[in-house]
Design a protein that fits this description.
Elements lengths: L13 H10 L7 H7 L40 E7 L12 H8 L5 E4 L15 E4 L8 E2 L9
Parallel strand pairs: 1-4
Antiparallel strand pairs: 1-2, 2-3
């Protein structure tokens, strides 16, 4: 099968995504930048390529909808950010097993955003966080490039 130039790249580790971004003269967005950009993401979860859509693979690039400079921020592939997976300010793990479970993962991991074609639509929202160690070639992780505005 020939390689499609319009499909999102996936199965990248954080290191691979970061290296590609640098090679491209860009960088990975911070988690906050990604979330800000995603505020104009697909108008409904139903329009994102998720598990509910049944495609079971990333889809070719689409034109952004009116009022948004970006497309495919939700669904298709998870997108690495340059942000370490750390608690939000003021977060305190609850006592007991839930706190122990959550607290131990907030170390040596990076944040992915956006969901993938294997994510249920009910999980997708611009604030949803995923995380993995940087060397992991998470099965549906890709890259979104960020560039600083010329000053």
């Amino acid at each position: 099968m020939p390689l499609s130039q319009d499909l999102p790249v996936c199965h990248l580790s954080y290191f691979e995504a970061d290296a590609f971004a640098r090679w491209s003269g860009a960088r990975l967005p911070t988690e906050a930048e990604w979330e800000y950009a995603a505020q104009c993401a697909e108008p409904t979860q139903a329009s994102a390529n998720t598990l509910d859509a049944g495609t079971l693979m990333p889809q070719p690039a689409r034109t952004p909808h009116a009022g948004c400079a970006f497309s495919q921020l939700l669904g298709d592939v998870w997108e690495w950010t340059s942000s370490s997976y750390a608690p939000y300010p003021g977060f305190a793990p609850p006592p007991g097993a839930v706190g122990e479970y959550n607290g131990k993962f907030m170390c040596n991991q990076y944040v992915l955003r956006g969901g993938s074609f294997a994510t249920p639509a009910s999980h997708l929202r611009p604030t949803y966080r995923n995380f993995f160690p940087p060397g992991t070639q998470w099965q549906f992780a890709g890259v979104r490039l960020a560039r600083d505005l010329a000053g």
